[in-house]
């Protein structure tokens, strides 16, 4: 079966697709937001440690599973470890479906902001009313409509398969995304807040580096690098046998982290150029979503040089970042049906996308449109379906999935098999270090994260 599953055309194809999965809303809104909350510099350092020490080894472990099995997560675990291990695969696919359901709704907001900005660029800026965004969120039909458009965009790419769909789309969207981001950063650096922003982001106060900083950096590394649910197992399964897992993972890490840091440079420069915004951030009055979809659009047209061009482009950037992530999630779910049930790609895509869209509708209506959906509270302090699913995935499903993956590769797959899949003749020092990180350090850190979650910490 492996032969007609599809394959990446080149290493670049894999790297761009996997970077596309990693680079997403998490980079553009969550990373800058968490950085601000945690002293800027202290968080950046903690994050770089987290991605190098944990993110990279776990990503390698995931890709290795996929590449070895040449199957998507559930059959991959079954093939390499037996029936019981396939539970880790199932957990991953469930996490993929859950994240895809709510992520698509948020992704849809980028379409609205794009059209809003185009209109402002053409007709001139008119300040929206104070509760404009709240009214938008409560408009159930519009929320479902935007989510539907995004679901179609995702499904069309997944339907077209690995080389002709995902790889091709990533090869177009990722370079465009980078160009827009560089343009945005260039423009933001012309603003008066630049020096303060760079100091804030790159000069750490080590006294501010707390356990919370470290934990938040690890949680963010997990989500941002698309780890813990088998997205990288799935993408790894379309890799050629002779590709280097280490090099490919390193490139993905570089792409993902650089986008996060560039986005933070742009956001910090903008915020530090507007004193009232700094005050709001410091008083904790602005959350990440508000920043991306309410504050920024207005700033483009009132404060930023060349905002008429930057505004619409910025939301193309957000939409592309989100789309390359949703296609990876869609592929995780669809590939299960293809590999496990032997369905054609078109049938698998149609069925999985329709099922997930059902979940998305519930999320879309949970933002104020429909009473019990907006008020339901499964986890303390989380209101509405969307927030609860986000909490469930980020706090429970991803860490537990990550735990299963690391324990499987570290203790059950066998040293020889890992060595072989990494293309090594003998166990080098770096290999031994990697193996012990996957065996001991990563599971330990995930346990600490889970313990923190049990005592009330929230990574969503
Ligand atoms: N990495 C994406 C982001 O930072 O927004 C989110 C994500 C995509 C998580 C795909 C997991 C995944 F499988």
Task: Give an account of the 3D structure.
By secondary structure, this protein is mainly alpha-helical. The chain has a single domain (2-454), classed as Hydantoin permease, CATH 1.10.4160. Helices cover 77% and strands 0% of the residues. α1 (11-22) crosses α12 (245-272) and α5 (86-123) packs across α18 (385-412). The chain is globular, with a radius of gyration of 21 Å. It binds 4-fluoro-L-phenylalanine. Residues 21-22, 24-27, 96, 99, 223-224, 226, 229, 231, 325, 328-329 line the site of 4-fluoro-L-phenylalanine.
SSE layout:
Layout: H1 11-22, H2 25-37, H3 41-69, H4 73-81, H5 86-123, H6 132-138, H7 140-159, H8 162-188, H9 194-202, H10 211-224, H11 231-236, H12 245-272, H13 275-282, H14 288-302, H15 307-341, H16 345-364, H17 371-375, H18 385-412, H19 415-421, H20 429-454
Residues 21-22, 24-27, 96, 99, 223-224, 226, 229, 231, 325, 328-329 line the site of 4-fluoro-L-phenylalanine.
Structural class: mainly alpha
Q: Quickly name the level 1 CATH class.
A: Mainly Alpha
The DSSP helix count reads 20
Q: What's the overall average pLDDT, rounded?
A: 96
What's the N-to-C terminus distance?
38 Å
**How many distinct domains?**
1
> Which ions, cofactors or small ligands are bound in this entry?
4-fluoro-L-phenylalanine
Described by strand count, sense and barrel closure, the largest sheet is:
none
What name does CATH use for the topology?
Hydantoin permease
Ranges with pLDDT <50 over ≥5 residues? none
What is the total tally of β strands? Answer: 0
């Amino acid at each position: 079966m492996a032969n007609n599953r599809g394959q990446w055309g080149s290493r670049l194809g894999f790297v761009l697709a996997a970077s596309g999965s990693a680079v997403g809303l998490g980079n553009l809104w969550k990373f800058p937001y968490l950085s601000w909350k945690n002293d800027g510099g202290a968080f950046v350092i903690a994050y770089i440690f987290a991605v190098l020490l944990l993110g990279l080894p776990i990503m390698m472990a995931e890709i290795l599973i996929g590449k070895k099995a040449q199957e998507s997560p559930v059959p991959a675990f079954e093939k390499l470890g037996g029936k019981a291990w396939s539970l880790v695969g199932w957990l991953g696919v469930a996490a993929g479906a859950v994240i895809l359901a709510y992520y698509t709704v948020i992704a849809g907001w980028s379409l609205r902001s794009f059209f809003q900005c185009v209109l402002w660029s053409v007709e001139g800026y008119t300040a929206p009313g104070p509760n404009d965004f709240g009214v938008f969120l409560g408009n159930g039909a519009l929320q479902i409509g935007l989510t539907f458009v995004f679901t179609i965009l995702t499904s069309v790419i997944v339907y077209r398969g690995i080389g002709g769909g995902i790889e091709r789309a990533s090869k177009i969207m990722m370079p465009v995304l980078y160009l827009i981001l560089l343009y945005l950063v260039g423009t933001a650096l012309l603003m008066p807040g630049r020096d303060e922003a760079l100091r804030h982001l790159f000069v750490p106060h080590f006294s501010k580096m707390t356990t919370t900083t470290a934990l938040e950096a690890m949680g963010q590394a997990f989500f941002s690098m698309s780890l813990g649910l088998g997205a990288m197992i799935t993408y790894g399964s379309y890799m050629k046998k002779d590709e280097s897992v280490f090099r490919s993972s390193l490139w993905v890490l570089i792409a993902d982290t650089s986008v996060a840091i560039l986005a933070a440079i742009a956001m910090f420069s903008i915020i530090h150029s507007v004193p009232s915004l700094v005050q709001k951030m410091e008083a904790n009055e602005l959350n990440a979503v508000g920043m991306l979809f309410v504050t920024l659009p207005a700033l483009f047209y009132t404060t930023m040089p060349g905002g008429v061009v930057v505004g619409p482009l910025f939301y193309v950037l957000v939409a592309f970042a989100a789309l390359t992530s949703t296609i990876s999630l869609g592929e995780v779910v669809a590939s299960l049906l293809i590999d496990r049930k032997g369905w054609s790609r078109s049938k698998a895509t149609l069925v999985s996308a329709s099922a997930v869209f059902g979940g998305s509708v519930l999320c879309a209506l949970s933002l104020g449109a429909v009473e019990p959906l907006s008020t339901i509270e499964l986890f303390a302090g989380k209101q509405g379906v969307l927030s609860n699913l986000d909490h469930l995935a980020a706090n429970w499903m991803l860490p537990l999935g990550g735990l299963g993956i690391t324990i499987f590769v570290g203790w059950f797959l066998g040293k020889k098999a890992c060595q072989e899949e990494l293309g090594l003749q003998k166990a080098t020092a770096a290999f031994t270090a990697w193996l012990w990180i996957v065996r001991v350090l990563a599971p330990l850190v995930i346990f600490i994260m889970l313990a923190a979650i049990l005592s009330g910490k929230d990574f969503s």
